Amino acid sequence: MRNVTHAGELLSTAAAARRIGVSVATINRWADTGTLPPAAKAPGLRGARLFHVADVERVKSERAA
Questions:
Q1: Vertex 19, ends 32 and 33: CA angle to 5°?
Q2: Which of 12, 20, 34, 38 is surrounded by the fewest CB atoms within 10 Å?
Q3: What pTM did the predictor assign?
Q4: CATH code of 22's domain
């Protein structure tokens, strides 16, 4: 995972799903496979994942192409 530099540039799993137009389960699957790498993860088994806006936009544009 990358270092988190600007908290304003991060999206939750649900926000990333809404932005791309997919389900939360799809975002989690993409995070697990490396398609959409999380920028940060909260501690614990169920810790929230956060994603850089730029990565979310990249995946969104790849899907549109």
A1: 10
A2: 34
A3: 0.82
A4: 1.10.1660.10
Length reported for the chain:
65
In the chain, the amino acid numbered 36 is L
Q: Mean pLDDT for each 10-residue chunk of the chain (65 residues)?
A: 61 97 97 96 91 97 93
Q: Output the six-digit token pair for 24.
A: 């939360």
Q: Which helix (H) or strand (E) holds 62?
A: helix 53-64
3-class DSSP assignment, residue 50: strand
CB 20 within 8 A of CB 27: yes
Paired tokens of 28: 């989690």
The answer to whether residue 2 is domain-embedded is no
